[in-house]
Amino acid sequence: MTRRIASLPLSIAAAVVILLGCGAAVRAESSENVFDAACRAYEDGHWDAAADGFRGLLRYGLADWRLEYNPANTEYKRGRLGEAILHYERAHRLNPADPEIVSNLAIARARIRDVVEDDNAAGVLAALRAAQDRIGVSTQASILLVCVWLLAAIVTWCGSRTGGFTPAWGWTLAALLVASLLLLLSWRATWSRLEGTPRAVILKASVEALAGPGLNNAALFTLHEGIAVTIRGEREGWLQVSLPNGLTGWVVRDAAERI
After folding, report:
1. Distance between CA atoms of 3 and 70, rounded to whole angstroms?
2. How far is CA 167 from the centre of its chain?
3. What would the pLDDT profile of 192-224 be if each residue is shown by its tens digit?
């Protein structure tokens, strides 16, 4: 388990101060000081103090992978596996290409009691997914946009010139079209996996997944702390969740937290 603590960029620190408001900024330490104090507490092995500091910055809802990665490291040191994986998953969603996030998430997942077989977790498909995650959703979207603009430019230029489409330009257009379609499919799959599918992490030591949303339903299987599940439905006080192997059941809402 690597112990690197990510630094807080000035833009994030400034945003926290703005959210705090002028009065609060006068009364309290600056966000940078809070962050630095939490980092020092982490390095000194004072996990509870570090967790309190990082949690204070998370309250303001800023979406930055550093504000998720550092609490993940801290919660792992505290032995709170579910919380650690929750924050690693959030950091990975925001920065899927970071190798230390990927490595630490894998180390934390290895400690989960539940072993769920996933047919897509190995082989060529797994390598493809890893490559897609490293590239990320926004980068794939940018490349796709460039391809679309190139397609439009070629069609416009060839359509306006005297010779029209030559074989070379025709093959170029076809290659760009195929590349654009593949990029679109890749972007859609990556977006769905990282952002579009609602997921949660089990935070309780163990929880029974029931056949329906109510304690009078039969228990189907047991979920343990740290495992990530897909949210399929919601009822008041209950979540319908599923595993990669297809098992589906209902758990109490406070047993899990959304990624």
Report:
1. 9
2. 44
3. 888 888 999 999 999 999 999 999 999 999 999
